[in-house]
Amino acid sequence: MMEDRRNWAGNYTYGAARVHRPATIAQVQEIVAGCRKVRALGSRHSFNAIADTPGDLLSLERLDRVVALDRARRTVTVEAGVRYGPLCRWLHREGFALHNLASLPHISVAGACATATHGSGDRNGNLATAVAAIELVTAAGEAVTLSRDCHGAEFLGAIVGLGGLGVVTRLTLDLVPAFAMRQDVYEDLSLEGWRPTSTPS
Ligand SMILES: Cc1cc2nc3c(=O)[nH]c(=O)nc-3n(C[C@H](O)[C@H](O)[C@H](O)COP(=O)(O)OP(=O)(O)OC[C@H]3O[C@@H](n4cnc5c(N)ncnc54)[C@H](O)[C@@H]3O)c2cc1C
Q1: Strand runs labelled E in 138-199
Q2: pLDDT per residue over 3-40, tens digit each?
Q3: Alpha-carbon span 37 to 16, nearest angstrom
Q4: Is residue 117, in this structure, part of any structural domain at all?
Q5: Whose CA is nearest to atom 11 of ligand 1?
Q6: Domain encompassing residue 158
């Protein structure tokens, strides 16, 4: 049973009967194979019913470790329950960063990529564009790996799967070298002298 049946914002109440919280990929496979209907649940940040099901929910919150850092290829492989905040702190200590982030640090990598969560900057790809490979468990409980290098269009079509193609258990993400950012906040600015950058015709 879910202790808190609501999404993070509290505007949606999940109707699923049970939430499974597996600690291994073998357990994920067992649960998926044994359920009539099951859907992956991320960090419950979507505002709507996208993560809900009349069947069972499967949360990967216990699968939240960094699996491997490949310095030469500049990639990191993580379990699907990892959240961006802890991941980015860990990457920074190792000298790496992700190319883009959403507004909140506590969303799961798998959920954000499954929904093509955008970051900022009109020249940066959304968070799913950093995915180089995924491992997922299909409806039959089979573990499948898809990668950008080996599976072309099939891979590209699977990344933003909205939880409909299976349960993603691991992701490999592209990295960039660590970088520093600065935020400038201007307060109490006067409107005097301000004019729009483009004037409607
Ligand atoms: C305050 C707030 C700010 C936000 N800011 C932004 C923002 O800046 N940019 C932006 O684009 N979005 C933003 N969002 C939207 C939100 O971040 C995304 O919907 C979120 O990233 C989804 O991730 P989640 O882990 O919470 O997934 P959930 O909401 O739990 O699930 C979303 C979908 O992903 C699927 N899914 C989750 N985990 C897996 C898995 N392991 N395998 C397969 N499918 C899976 C689910 O089945 C479901 O279909 C914001 C939301 C809130 C509430």
Answers
A1: 143-147, 167-174, 176-177
A2: 678 999 999 999 998 999 999 999 999 999 999 999 99
A3: 10
A4: yes
A5: 117
A6: 66-177
Q: Which residues, 6 or more positions from 66, have their beta carbon under 8 angstroms from its beta carbon?
A: 76, 77, 78, 79, 82, 87, 90
Average pLDDT over residues 84-107: 96
- The ligand 1 site (C-beta within 6 Å) comprises 8-9, 39-46, 50-51, 60, 80, 102-104, 107-108, 110-112, 114-115, 117-118, 161-163, 167-168
**Ligand 1 geometric centre to CA of 115 (Å):** 6
Atom of ligand 1 nearest to the CA of 120: 8
CB 140 within 8 A of CB 1: no
pLDDT average, residue stretch 126-132: 97
What token pair was written down for 174? 């592209």
Q: What is the CATH number of the domain that holds 166?
A: 3.30.465.10
Phi, psi for 177 (deg, rounded to 5):
-60, 150
